[in-house]
Amino acid sequence: MTKQFKVIVEKHPDGYVAYPLGLKGIVVGEGDTYEEALADVKSAIRFHIETFGRDVLEEGLSIPEAFVAKREYPYFPK
To answer: What is the pLDDT of residues 27-57, one digit of tens each?
Structure first.
């Protein structure tokens, strides 16, 4: 059985950062492109589960939707 994760991909001035929702612990991927960051985080998810076991899965966690926001950098809140 394959588990699906929602992944947040953020664009930064020096590349992209991606991280999944629904895992215990810190899992991050990065790359110069969206596709590289997504491939990196997929690899990181597999490694995280293989290393720490299925206990890192947040069972019963429901994430019905994720929001995408765009902001300019540098970002300084007022």
So the answer is: 999 999 999 999 999 999 888 888 888 888 8
Q: 25 in helix, strand or coil? A: coil
**Which whole-number Å values give the CA distances from 16 to 4, 9, 12, 37, 55, in the listed order?**
21, 7, 6, 6, 28
Structural domain for 34, as ranges: 6-56
Instruction: Tell me the residue type at 35.
Output: E
Q: 74 in a domain, yes or no?
A: no
Q: In this structure, is residue 69 part of a structural domain?
A: no
| Domain assignment present for 25 | yes
Band the pLDDT of 68: cuts 50, 70, 90: low
Report percent pLDDT > 90 for the chain: 29
